[in-house]
# Entry
Amino acid sequence: MKLWLKILIALALGVATGLIWGPQAEILKPIGGVFLSLINMIIMLLVLASMTVGITSIHDPKKLGRVGLKSLMVFAFTTMAAIVMGLLFSQIFQVGEGLNLKQSTEIVLQTPPSLSEILLSIVPNNPIKSLVEGNVLQIIVFALFLGISINFAGEKGKPLLEFMESLADVMYRMTSIVMEFSPIGVFAIMASVAGSFGIAVLIPLIKFLLAYYTAAIVHCLVVFCSILWFMAKLSPLPFFKGMSDAIMVAFSTSSSSATLPVSMHCVQENLGVSKNISNFVLPLGSTVNMNGAAIFQGMAAVFIAHAYGIELDWQSLITLTVTATLSAIGAAGIPGSGFIMLTVVFTSIGLPIEGLAILAGIDRIREMGSTVLNILGDAVCAIYVAKQEGELDERQYYHEELVELEGSDI
# Structure
């Protein structure tokens, strides 16, 4: 049985268990926590090693700049399209209408960082400290400079490169071992979430969730499929089949970073993207390409505006789009960034940030779909860049028999 099918069965059983047990299902939460901890212990060294090796594999500095520029352009395009999609569907569904909020709801939020603080925070003062604190964006910046420096060092840099290649291979193997436990972890996570939220708590916000998931699906079908079909000249169907394992892990863990090892496997082994491209694009995308969060930011702003009876003019919508694009990019390296960065968007157009407390209850459920959209956006970018650079094996992309994750080398 393939891993994604095991995960799907575990997910369904977890939801059923949570609904039957109710709050008592919280007893399973530590098991899910152990699984997430196992994944988290892989991430930092995997990102450092794989991205460093990926950069050193691109010996031509011009190619490195070209790949990076193409990736960032695709990320910026899909992020802005996601915000517009969120605004569009929030108007279609009229999210937030009828709540008629008048009294402020108390909510404690950290002071959101300014744009300049975000830009300054991506450069590590101490790479070891960044590893310890789990600051992925800073590690990516360090890996970028480390990989370039190894190339410039020539023969003297080869021992360090061999060490990083060995570390990357070991982390890939460790990923395959940890993923054997994913069905158990997914079952425990979904049981505790379903037990905590139940069904009744979703009723007041069901319209928002429906609008969000509709926008996410349309964004996936219109934007991602258009990039694959028209720009990469590829059929989208093998893409979704090849990413099935990563989709299930992303939906259950709600973490782009936690899904990164599985995404790298799917893109390389199932879809034929070279390690040179995937090792560079995917870690970068997991921190700066947040399509799911971008849709949420636009939709949440309209939701709160409607709830408080605030009219948003075109100037406010333009300001919202630009600010949300920048904050979606900057959110990745900031702990608890979802709601904290949304305060930047709200402040830019004068919305009451205390309204975020209303959406806090469904954020975990919203994040499940959001994470799937995030990882699919990263994979689409990797495929497009690989096709442009001649590093996509189309025979492998269209292969009907996909390589199973269990017991295979990643």
About this structure: DSSP finds 19 helices and no strands in the chain. The chain has one domain: 3-407. The CA atoms of residues 217 and 373 lie 8 Å apart.
